[in-house]
C-alpha cells in the first residue's frame, strides 16, 4: 500500500487495522468522531488509550465530510480541511440488517431481529443468528445489540441445531473482548456505566486501593451494581507484568470470583500469561 492512509473509526477494527499497517511500514491517520472504544470503555480509559496510541499514529477528532479524487483517492475532507490520502479505510461500526426479516413480517426492533432462547423468530421454522439479532444480555436480562463474532458463532450453532430438530437454548451472553493492539493488552467485559444507565440499572465504579501504585503500567476499571456485584470490567496494560500484579492482587477475593464476569476475566488473564509469560 503506497502513499498515505486514513482510517475512519475508533473501535477495535480501526485500531487493529492501524496496528497492522504500521507493522508493514505504513503510518496511518485515525479519524475518530468522539473517542476511542467509546461504546465499551469509560472516558478516562479512552483517554489513556489515545495517549498511548498517538505515539504510534496521528489521531484527528472529527468527521469524514468528503472523499476527493476523480479516478482514485487524492484527498479526504476532515473538519473542512483537505488531507492528502491515497487510501481511505472505513471502520465505522455495524448496524443490524433487518430489511429481509421486516419484509417477511418477522418481529424486529432497533436492536435487531427478535428471537427466543432457541434463536427462533415469531414465524414458525424461521431462525436468525449473528449480528442481525437482538441479544439477551446475561447481566441485565434485557435485549441489546451485541455485534461480536464469538457470540454470533454460538448463536449459529444453536439456530442450526434447533432448525434440525434439536433443543439447544441460550441463557444470554456477556460481551467480552480481548485484543492486543500496539503492544497493549486491552480487556473489556460486561457493561459500562453508560450501558447500565441506559438499561435503568444502578451502577458505580469500584474504588481500587492499588490503582495509583499501578497507574504507570496501565488502567483498570471495575463497575458494580447497587449490590456490589461486578457487572463490568476494563483493563489496558502496557506490559504483562502489570497484568500479573492485578492478577495477584485480586484473585483471592471470593466476592468477585462468584461472578460470571470474573470467570471470563480469568480466562483472558491466563491467556495473556500463556502468550506473554511474566516473571
Record keyword descriptors for this entry.
4-stranded parallel beta sheet, 279 residues, 5-stranded antiparallel beta sheet, alpha+beta, single chain, 16 strands
Q: What would you say this structure looks like, in words?
A:
This protein has about 280 residues and is an alpha+beta fold. It is about 30% helix and about 25% strand. It contains nine helices and 16 strands. It has helices spanning about 10-25, 45-55, 100-105, 150-165, 195-200, 210-215, 240-250, 255, 260-275, and strands spanning about 5-10, 30, 60, 65-70, 75-80, 80-85, 85-90, 110, 110-115, 135, 145, 175-180, 185-190, 205, 220-225, 230-235. The strands form five sheets. Strands 12-13-16-15-14 form a five-stranded antiparallel sheet, sandwiched between helices. A hairpin with a 4-residue loop joins strand 15 and strand 16. Helix 7 (about 240-250) packs antiparallel against helix 9. The longest helix is centred in the last third of the chain and has 16 residues, at about 260-275. The chain is globular. The two termini are about 40 Å apart.
Amino acid at each position: 500500500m503506497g502513499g498515505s492512509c486514513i482510517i475512519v473509526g475508533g473501535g477495535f477494527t480501526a485500531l487493529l487495522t492501524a496496528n497492522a499497517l504500521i507493522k508493514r511500514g505504513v503510518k496511518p491517520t485515525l479519524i475518530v468522531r468522539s473517542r476511542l472504544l467509546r461504546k465499551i470503555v469509560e472516558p478516562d480509559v479512552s483517554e489513556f488509550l489515545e495517549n498511548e496510541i498517538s505515539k504510534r499514529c496521528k489521531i484527528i477528532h472529527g468527521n469524514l465530510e468528503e472523499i476527493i479524487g476523480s479516478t482514485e483517492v487524492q484527498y479526504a475532507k476532515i473538519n473542512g480541511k483537505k488531507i492528502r490520502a491515497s487510501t481511505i479505510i472505513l471502520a465505522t461500526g455495524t448496524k443490524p440488517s433487518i430489511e429481509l426479516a421486516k419484509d417477511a413480517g418477522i418481529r424486529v426492533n432497533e436492536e435487531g431481529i427478535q428471537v427466543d432462547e432457541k434463536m427462533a423468530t415469531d414465524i414458525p421454522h424461521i431462525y436468525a443468528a449473528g449480528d442481525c439479532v437482538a441479544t439477551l444480555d446475561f447481566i441485565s436480562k434485557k435485549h441489546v445489540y451485541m455485534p461480536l463474532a464469538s457470540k454470533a458463532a454460538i448463536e449459529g450453532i444453536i439456530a442450526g441445531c434447533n432448525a434440525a430438530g434439536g433443543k439447544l437454548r441460550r441463557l444470554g451472553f456477556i460481551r467480552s473482548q480481548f485484543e492486543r493492539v500496539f503492544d497493549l493488552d486491552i480487556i473489556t467485559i460486561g457493561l459500562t456505566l453508560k450501558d447500565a444507565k441506559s438499561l435503568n440499572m444502578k451502577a458505580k465504579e469500584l474504588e481500587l486501593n492499588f490503582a495509583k501504585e499501578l497507574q504507570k503500567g496501565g488502567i483498570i476499571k471495575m463497575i458494580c451494581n447497587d449490590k456490589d456485584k461486578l457487572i463490568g470490567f476494563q483493563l489496558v496494560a502496557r506490559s504483562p507484568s502489570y497484568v500479573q500484579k492485578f492478577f495477584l492482587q485480586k484473585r483471592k477475593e471470593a466476592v468477585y470470583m462468584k461472578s460470571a464476569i470474573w470467570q471470563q476475566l480469568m480466562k483472558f488473564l491466563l491467556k495473556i500469561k500463556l502468550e506473554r509469560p511474566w516473571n
